[in-house]
From TrEMBL:
One of its GO terms (molecular function) is ATP-dependent peptidase activity. The lineage of its organism: Bacteria, Pseudomonadati, Pseudomonadota, Alphaproteobacteria, Rhodobacterales. This is Peptidase M41 domain-containing protein. Transmembrane segments: none annotated. It comes from Maritimibacter fusiformis. GO terms for biological process: proteolysis.
Length: 187
């Protein structure tokens, strides 16, 4: 057995599960923004926000692969934000299993890359997003906004309000798809 609890809860404000969820959701929203997508809504449950890429699929395997890659990056974003703000990532979410499943689907569609290679490539993209100080610095203020919304009784935060906060915290949304292309072509 483990000598230490690998799922120990963080202390302080991050010990509050509701605040931790807000941090996690802030990470998803910030990641979607960095990828150039508009957030349509944030459900204050352990799920990524609904973003415009959910509504536009296209009719090719490449367009499907791109949607799945974006979803993986977004899933990584919640855990990365939680790690930055709370010094730990939640071990009790389904994101790891979902990322693994999506990477396997991408590999099957792609036919050239192994699931593990896709995992590390997409995780690197998500990590790169949060290397920018303004992204790291935006996690807690955006989480505080989301946390306050939950305290007011909101379980679904309209995307326009989340977008306005992100505009103030990190500036306008970048061009869609540019970040993923730029980072993956470097690898």
């Amino acid at each position: 057995m483990h000598e230490t609890d690998p799922c120990a809860l963080p202390e302080g404000r991050c010990g509050d599960l509701a605040f931790r969820l807000a941090v996690y959701e802030a990470g998803h929203a910030l990641t979607a923004r960095a990828l150039g997508f508009r957030v349509l809504s944030v459900k204050m449950r352990p799920r990524p926000p609904v973003m415009e890429s959910d509504k536009v699929l296209g009719n090719t395997f490449r367009s499907l692969t791109t949607v799945l890659e974006n979803r993986c990056i977004e899933l990584f974003g919640g855990q990365i934000a939680e790690d930055h703000a709370c010094a730990t990532a939640s071990c009790c979410t389904g994101d790891v299993a979902r990322i693994d499943e999506l990477c396997r689907l991408i590999s099957g569609l792609d036919g050239r890359r192994e699931p593990e290679d896709i995992w590390f490539e997409l995780e690197d993209v998500a990590l790169e997003i949060f290397r920018a100080p303004k992204m790291r610095d935006a996690i807690v203020p955006l989480a505080e906004f989301l946390f306050a919304e939950v305290a007011r009784g909101e379980t679904i935060v309209p995307g326009a309000r989340v977008e306005a906060w992100m505009d103030d915290l990190i500036g306008p949304r970048p061009k869609r798809g540019g970040l993923l292309r730029r980072l993956t072509t470097r690898a």
